[in-house]
């Protein structure tokens, strides 16, 4: 019987969390890891339900082979942990506030002492060397404080377990998709020459958080991106107060989010009459998307999607250097991708039913850009299903 | 003469960037660092103007003693760099996309090759071991690829140079403050029993990005936090679709943001009649805030503010474990603090004119919470100036 001081509103069933834990433990065993130190907030949430904007300080979840996970973080955030994780309250441990941003002590010293106290300091400890928020200093401190442990690189070990979505997760993603559609509908309605960009983003954020279909909206792990004209060559610019201008294309990179699950969805709006270059690029891109969707099937490989996309683009004289997609699902800033598979020619990962991707063949040329994308789920049979249902085209407002 | 392919809309004057670079170089010399590798996005932006949501991949700025800084990042993001940094286009270097989230190669291998090519691989290289987005793996790869370099911990070296704000920066922060005031005014108007939380957040985000006083709003580095009732014990919970409830206090932790400069501002709203506990806590907190503001003067120390706050709280039987504030200014997710000084009893940093803080004495008790805060600037003479001008109290709506 778990000890819970507060009523919980866990996003998922107990069975779902048990499934995730069992999958992770099996992967730990394969990787030769006795215990796993998880710092990526998306992995923490996927395993335990923990949800809070506290990842700017050192924190994490310890996965053990034979006992419930332990949440460890700043004292004041342990109040958030006992309200959001499925484990018992006694599995949430806080460290003192004078470890926070101190030049004299490091939070990892506290963690190391806990591990020693639990008799876990002589084991093989997996650490997420290249996931978010596990700093170089955190690693060095842990290594120095645990001379008898063997620290093993377990980057993305948990991320890989997240690839195939459960039915419960797909329900969340379909809710997120409704929000994405609502945002794009609003953009097509509101973007006009002379309207300042920030005013459009203000409405996007409002739509995103109001939610859709009776479900509230969560914050996306990336803010809306919407570069125009020649700036659209740069995929990650945000916004300012300048107006949209006639004669320019703007792409809108947004995602609806429901309880941390994302469905990114991008469309481009051209104000005025697009040039031949744009129209040809649009036609090739849509053809490439459709070719990619057609081969996005269980049993095919990630690279098959990338190669199918590339053919019509190359015929149109467009060379893309970048990957054309990545897995999606639960996430926290700074990225809504899962950081495992990449849809590119050299990735031969076999696609499985329930995998979800943002098929994202953005064109970022030297002085223009175009994005038309789809978030998809791989089916048991047949081609991928798109989460959103809106015309697959560049919208022209003349 | 710098080579610029695109017209720039730099936030600051050339003199301001020169001042920042000179300050940083002097600090590097004091720290025994020949060249500095800066990965914290707020430091990158402060030094160069770089602005884009690309910090989810490896990137950084190289500060040299005798030449302009070099921006280095993903190829597609170098398009954003040449549009936003003050340096010449030839100072922006991109790495190939197949380094991104690859299991076979690491972007730091590319960086190391560049350093070797520039003849910089035998120097003392400062690295931000405990700033954001410099992963353990990034450090280990760089160290392995540069066996002749000496890597030196330069965590927060740049952050410390940012402490005293210029007049140009204070102009931005005053614009952000107007946005903060507008958000709080909207909260006081809109929060009512029965209104779902996400609907209020939707309006907060809309207000934030619409801006105020004719200036557009940027995204804050932290999303709005607004826990109610017993959840207010947990400072970093976000929102859901449940309604505000009569008989509960909710604190609102928000910040207006203008061109990446933040002015956080928190107020608490009680729906119904607050209990004696709340009223006593409010009175003690306001007294503590005023005592703290009074000693927040040039020449005094960070701890003087914390100690002045603590006295009336202790008289009221309230013990706070956490620090009561931090410096603020330019920032990117996941934190709007500057991560240098902490307002707490053990921090004896001397306050200087132009330093800016979020004086943030949140009360997070075991089953309730209260936040009334002020963002402040230290003056040449006299007590600190508050950026925002709204009643310093708990708002009661009965």
TrEMBL record, chains A, B:
Residues 20-163 form the Creatinase N-terminal domain. Signal peptide: none annotated. GO terms for molecular function: hydrolase activity. CDD domains: APP_MetAP (cd01066). Keywords: Hydrolase. Residues 173-380 form the Peptidase M24 domain. It comes from the Bacteria. It holds the Pfam family Creatinase_N. PANTHER family: AMINOPEPTIDASE, XAA-PRO AMINOPEPTIDASE P-RELATED. This is Ectoine hydrolase. It comes from Puniceibacterium sediminis.
